[in-house]
Amino acid sequence: MVAEAGVGVSETLPRGRGPGRAADPAAGPGLLGRRLYIPRMTDCGIEAFAAAFRSVGIDAVALPRPDARTLELGSRHLAGEECLPAKITLGDFLKVVETPGFDPRRAAFLMTTTDGPCRFGQYAVTIRKVLREIGYPEVPVLSPTSEDSYRELGDLGPELTRTGWWALVGSDILRKLLLKTRPYERIRGEADAAFADSTRQLCEVLQQPGLRRRERMRALVSALTRARDRFRSVSARYEKGRPLIGIQGEIFCRHEEFSNDQLIRRLEECGGEAWISDVSEWVWYCNSDQERVLRAEGRGVSFVMLGAKLRDRIQHADEAALMAPFAQDFVGYEEPAHIDEILRAGERYLPQSGALGEMVLSAGKVDHFFRKGADGIIDISPFSCMNGIVSEALYPLQSQEHAGIPIKSFYFDGKGRDIIHGLEIFLELARSYQRRKPHPRHYPPWFV
Ligand code: SF4
């Protein structure tokens, strides 16, 4: 499942899991006069993404958080064998449809698609089918991608791509700040409040129309610096020793709280700290995979390759500019300098050329968390997700070859099962490993 796909992200999806062309005939001339609803696939990333759409004049909104009604509506139209994210996204769109006053002539939904083997390819198809069945065939389900030159977006695509990337990186930064602060706060709720305020401020900058790129970047760095200071001012007791748990797995489920039964909050309540794999990691992977495919096709020296390398460089430079204020704050939480480090580390378990998707990243990320001194790793996946199943089969060997670091897979099917017991046992294993781990953890300077 691809989070925050659609702009910036979607244009770089690897083959087999990337978005296909927007095949919806109902898309018509575009979004004029319509509100674009974006499914909530992460905590704050989708709000930022919607703000990026608004910056180019598209009336975009992030859908509210999923709830029991989401599942009820999603289940009503599915056979029961689909992945949980399929049920959640469909259910959330149907909640919009059942809103009093819903006007199908003024609404559009965003959902990327794929022509590859993953079931993600069926999401947009299914949503369109259900909309037809319930009498709303005129509601477009859009998948704007570079493959169709952003047909639905007209001239807005390139600008949106860049702002969308900034939205994604900015929201990754805010999520990191939240997760490294919340477990240590003295007053419950302070870190969440800082996160909500910071997200609002990030979105205010992202959604401003007519800003030149340099102006927007300056304003974003300033908003993120304010967010940094706001988090630093949260009353907290930063004591060393709390088990640090790397979180990886299927991208939608690991980032969407309702889908994963709030695993991260529960982990914190049980005494752990989470370090979750960024959404941008997926973009780096897609960039790398695009280059791999071009080389395999004999187009290693081509204009397409040149464009891909240029985009990668620009994205890295943008990320470095946005991350600059956080040198101290993210000590010990550094991501690899390049995605190839992760892909190389995972190569002997799951070669990039022989597999696709999160499982490739999960195979390599184990090594990164291990070397950064994490005390355990949790994989979050929807029940029956092929990414999760393949990864789970590899983890025993990976644990054995990484000094016995505990790795556990948690699967979710929307039934709201009790995960506390499993987390408590896992944290005991993590504490035991912490006493003998070969790589120490590094901390920001204010830890005692
Ligand atoms: S199989 Fe897994 S990765 Fe693919 S769509 Fe389903 S949940 Fe997402």
Q: Strand-residue fraction?
A: 5-15%
Order of helices and strands: EHEHHEHEHHHEHHEHHHHEHEH
Q: Radius of gyration in whole Å, from Cα? A: 21 Å
Per DSSP E runs of 2 or more residues, the count of β-strands stands at 8
- Taking strands numbered 1, 2, ... along the chain, how are they ordered across the largest sheet? 2-1-3-4
- The helix tally amounts to 15
Largest sheet: 4 strands, parallel
Features:
448 residues; alpha/beta; 15 helices; 8 strands
How would you describe this structure to a colleague?
There is one protein chain. The strands form two sheets. The chain has a four-stranded parallel sheet. Strand 7, helix 14 and strand 8 form a beta-alpha-beta unit. It has helices spanning 45-55, 68-76, 84-97, 123-133, 157-181, 190-207, 213-232, 251-255, 263-269, 280-296, 303-323, 339-346, 358-371, 386-400, 420-434, and strands at residues 35-38, 59-62, 107-110, 141-142, 244-249, 273-276, 376-382, 407-412. The radius of gyration is 21 Å and the shape is globular. It has 448 residues and is α/β, with parallel strands linked by helices. Helix content is 47%, strand content 8%. It is built from 15 helices and eight strands. The protein binds iron/sulfur cluster. Iron/sulfur cluster (SF4) binds at residues 1, 83, 85, 118-120, 250, 382, 385-387.
Topology:
Blueprint: E1 35-38, H1 45-55, E2 59-62, H2 68-76, H3 84-97, E3 107-110, H4 123-133, E4 141-142, H5 157-181, H6 190-207, H7 213-232, E5 244-249, H8 251-255, H9 263-269, E6 273-276, H10 280-296, H11 303-323, H12 339-346, H13 358-371, E7 376-382, H14 386-400, E8 407-412, H15 420-434
Parallel strand pairs: 1-2, 1-3, 3-4, 5-6, 5-7, 7-8
The structure holds iron/sulfur cluster (SF4).
